[in-house]
Amino acid sequence: MGPLAGLTRVPRRYSSGAQSPPPPREKTLAQTKPLTLREMGAVPLTVVHDEMEAEVICGMLRTNGIECGYRKTDMAGAWTVGFATGGPTELLVDETKLDKARELLRRHR
Q1: Which class is 37-108 in CATH?
Q2: Sign of CA dihedral 33, 34, 35, 37
Q3: Tens digit of pLDDT for each residue in 4-48?
Q4: By three-state DSSP, how is residue 25 classified?
Q5: On the CB side of 42, how many CA atoms lie within 13 Å of its CA?
Q6: Which residues neighbour 51 within 8 Å (Cβ) at sequence distance 6 or greater?
Q7: Plot region of 107 (φ>0 → left; ψ -120 to 50 → alpha; else → beta)
Q8: How many CB atoms lie within 10 A of CB 88?
Q9: For the segment 48-87, what is each residue's pLDDT rounded down to a tens digit?
Q10: Distance of CA 71 to CAs 30, 65, 68, Å?
Q11: 99-106, long-range: CB within 8 Å, 24+ apart, which pairs?
């Protein structure tokens, strides 16, 4: 006989006092990870001078509820050998929000 022989198993109790686990809670915004460009169905919005300008515009778009990302264009990669933040940078947004993003960009330029 093992060391636990003869012991009675006590049902697990959760903080609510129930014997079954609570239902899963919905994730809050802070717990969700940002979508990748592929997951969001990203399409090109515009090309800007560099990553700093891309960050400013993406900040404005995100403030208005539009997910945004950016990547260096092929030309920028060739110019900077992939190391610097300079060079043409393509802004990408969710395809379903493209019209709204274009309107915001037009109003703020």
Answers
A1: alpha beta
A2: negative
A3: 555 555 555 555 566 666 666 665 545 555 556 666 678 999 999
A4: coil
A5: 17
A6: 70, 72, 85, 86, 89
A7: alpha
A8: 16
A9: 988 899 999 999 999 999 989 888 887 655 555 655 667 8
A10: 24, 20, 11
A11: 100/64, 100/66, 101/45, 101/61, 101/66, 101/68, 102/45, 104/60, 104/61, 104/64, 104/66, 105/45, 105/46, 105/57, 105/61
DSSP 10: P
Q: In sequence order, what are the residues at sequence separation of 6 or more whose Cβ sits closer than 8 angstroms to the Cβ of residue 66?
A: 93, 94, 97, 100, 101, 104
Question: Where are the domains positioned within the chain?
Answer: 37-108
Cβ contacts of residue 35 below 8 Å, gap of 6+?
A: 67
